[in-house]
Amino acid sequence: MKKRMIKTFALACCACLTLNFFASCNIQGNSASTNDGGDIVQTTTKEDLYTGGTHIFDVKDTEKDMIKNGECDYQIVYPSSCTSNEEFAVQEFIELFAMATNIELEAKRDVGLTHNASAKYISIGNTSLLNSSGIDTDVSDLKDDGCKIVTKDNTVYIFGGKNGVMYGVYDFMQITFNYEIYYIDCIEIDKNVSNLKLKNYNVKDIPDVEIRHRNWDRFSGSTAEDARNRNRFRTISSRIDQILPIHQVMGDKTSAGGGGESRTHNSTSYFLPPDQYQAEHPKWYASSGNDQLCWSAHGDQKELQAMIETAAEKIIWSLQWYTPTAYPDCNTVLFSIEDATRECQCDTCTMYKTEYCGLAAPSIIVMNGISEIVDEWMAKEENAEYRRDLTYCFLAYLGFEAPPVKYDETLKKYVPIDESVTPRDNVKPYLAMMMSFDYQLSLQDEMNKKGKDIIDQWTDITGKLNYWLYSVNYRNLLTVYDSFNFFNDAYRFLGNQGIREIYVQGGTAGGQTTPTAWGSLKLYIESKMLWDVNLDVNVLIENWFNAMFKEAAPEMKELFQEERLWNGYLMDTFDLWMIRSNYTDLVNTKYFPMATLENWMAKCDSALAKVEKYKTSAPELYQAIKNHIEIEWITPSYLLLALYNENLSSTDKNAIIDRFVDATDRLGILRAAENRSTPTITDFIATIS
To answer: pTM of this prediction?
Structure first.
C-alpha cells in the first residue's frame, strides 16, 4: 500500500474503531492535548511559503487619544459622490465601531473639506480629504480588492480598489479591536472599549488570489444580509460574474441564456444548439452524441472554421449587448464542454488524445481562432465602445484537463507540442480538476502527482491560471469529506504557481443554506487562506472552534478529530482513496457501526450541555451555538436513520426524527446529495417513518 500522509497515531487509533473504540476511548489520550492525531498534516516548509503577497501591517500606538473615558471626538467623512462600496464601508465602520465601543460615530460628506492637521477624521474612500492630504493615492497596484490604511496627523485614511475600501474597514477593525468573523452569526470583537490610543497606521493589504469566488449556497442569496456576509468573508465574486453571457439564438437577446450554469457549460446548450445547427453542420457534434461538440469538426477544416466563426459571431453580439460600461466585470469568454463525461470518438479526436495528450489541444485551436476574430472586430474604430480586455477560456475538465505539452530540456520547462496548439496570450484554460486529484489526500501524495504535473504544465505555457477545485462529497453532502490536508498545501502551492481566480466548489447544487459536515469550517478557512495563502490552517481551526462553540469547543474539536480519523480509516481499510472520490457512496453499514454514530451524537449532546448556562443568560448566543452543534449532529443522525432506523426503538426513532426534521428545517438543509432531482430530506424522512 502506498504511504498516505496520515499520522501513525491516527491509524493506530483507527484500528481500534472496529471494536467500537469511539464508544469507550478518548482518542486524544491526554484531554489537555489537541494535537495527537487531530492536526492537519503540514508537508510544506518555510522554503515553500508564497513570497509574492503584500500584507504590510506596520501599526504603532501614538500618544494621542482616539477614545478617552468612553468619549470619541472623531467623525467619519466619505465622498459626496460615493460608490455603493464606499457607502457600505461607512455603514460597516459605524456598526462595528459601535459594537466594540458603544459609540456611534457621526458620518458626513466631504463637501468643502480638506486635510487639516488638527482635525480628527476617519476618511473612508476617495474623499477630498484624501486628495488634499499629500498621501500617495495611487491604487493601481491594489487592483480591485487591495486596501491601504494610513494615519496622517490626527486623521486615519482608509481607501483602496473598487472593493478594497470595504476590506480596509475590516482590516482596521481587526487591527484595532481584534475583529474576526467565523460564520454569519459568529463575530468576535473587543467589547466596551472606553480608552484607545490613536494608532499610526501604515497598512497595505492585497489578497494573494485576485478573484476569490464565493462558495457554498450559504452565500448565494440575494438579500442585503447575504450581500453583507459575502463582503465580510471577502469572497463577493460569483464564478459566473466575469463570464460574458451567451444567448441561444443569434442576434436575439430575448432568447434563453445570460445567467446561471449557461455561462459555465454552454457549448451545445447556448453557443451551438443542435436544433439550430446540426442539420447543416453535423460534423460540429461529437460521435458520442450531440450533447457535446466535436472540437475538431471530425477533421474537416472547412467545417471547423465555420464553427469558429459562428461562435465568434455570437460573442460579438453579446459584446454589443453587455457593454463595458454596463457590465464592467464581464471580461471572460468561456466556451466550454457540457457537464457530461462523453467525448467525441472520431478519428481526429482520437489522434489528439493519443498524440497531443488529450482534447485540450483542439480546444486551444478553437479558442485561438475565436479570439483572433473577436479581437480583430474590437480593434476596429467603429467598435471602440464595445472594446474590452478579454480573456478567452475553455473548461479543462474531464478529458480536457491535460495540456498538449512536451518537456524542453534546454529551457527546463514545458512547451506546446507544436505551434498549432500554442495558446495565444489571452487564451487560457479554466482548470476544473475533477479527474486529477483525490481531494482527501495531501497535495503531496503520490496519487495527486498527476494533478500537480498538469498544473505545472499549464502554468509553463499560459501563466496565471483559473482554478475550479472541489471540497465535498456530492453524492453524500451530509457526510464528512476530509479535504483539509489537501487545501492546507494547495493554496500555498497554487500561490507559487500563479492564480488568476479560484473557485473551490462546496455544497452549491443541493440548495443548502447551511453547510454541514464541517462545511462552515471549510468556508472560513477558504475565506482566510485565499486572502493570505501562508496562514497556518491549524491556528485557524483552533480559533474557529473556540469562537463557534465557546466552552463546548473541546468536545466539538474531539468530534472533528474522530470523524477525520474514522474517514482515514475507512479510506485505508476499504481502499477508497481514488480520483473523483467526491462521488464515493459512503451510506453503507459496513462503513459506519451503529455504536460509532451514537457516540458521535452523544458528543454533540455533551457539547450542548456545556453551554446550557447561556440558555437564560444569553439566549441569542445559546441559539447560535446550538445551531453550530446541531449542524454537525446532522451528519451522524442522518447516517443512523439511513442505516439503522429499524434497529431503533419506536420511541428513540421518533425522537431522533423529530429533532432531525426540526434541525434541517431551521437550518435550511434540503437534500442529502448534490443533484436537485434527488430525494429531498422530506422524502427521506417519509421512507423511514
So the answer is: 0.92
